[in-house]
Predict the 3D structure of the following.
Amino acid sequence: MSGSLAIIDGGGANIASLTFALQRLGVTAQLTTDKSAIARADKVILPGVGAAADAMTRLQHADLCQFIRDLKQPVLGICLGMQLMFDTSEEDDATCLGIIPGKATRFTPAPNRPVPHMGWNKVQQKSASPIFAGIEDNPYFYFVHSFALPISEDTIGSTDYGSEFTAVAESNNFVAAQFHPERSGAVGARFLKNFISNYN
């Protein structure tokens, strides 16, 4: 796999596991908030773990919000990074990047369905995309989240946890996964490889 990769450093706790997953694919990524480094990269990943409002504050302090919106190369959002690509989050009434229409809302706890949603769950492909190349339908990916996006015209993969929600979204050069591919074994590695190698 060739091309440069930048990971936007928003302070997420999943950055180390993401870096290791990429290294296993033979990819070295630059962790940075430097605009020139991000702009030069062939691909960009926006990871995230934690609260939406706090993550947006970090991006604002780094003066990256409009910059991310304007990126033209492929950008992958992971977990909270996905939610930040949407308009808003119910969590602390956060205003997010507004790249993809939608609002993240909290799951309603129920017997045998605790919140956060944590563990392995199936992803059903809604439409074809290079991000799914070589991945059969209904694979298991690893999730850890309390908020989720509804199904919309940008949904290309969905998961059910009491109700159906967006697991993978795609809009122009932006693609996003609610699950953690870096913690999802071989299928997660293939998902990352597809973004790096096949997604243009």
Summary: The chain has a mean pLDDT of 94.
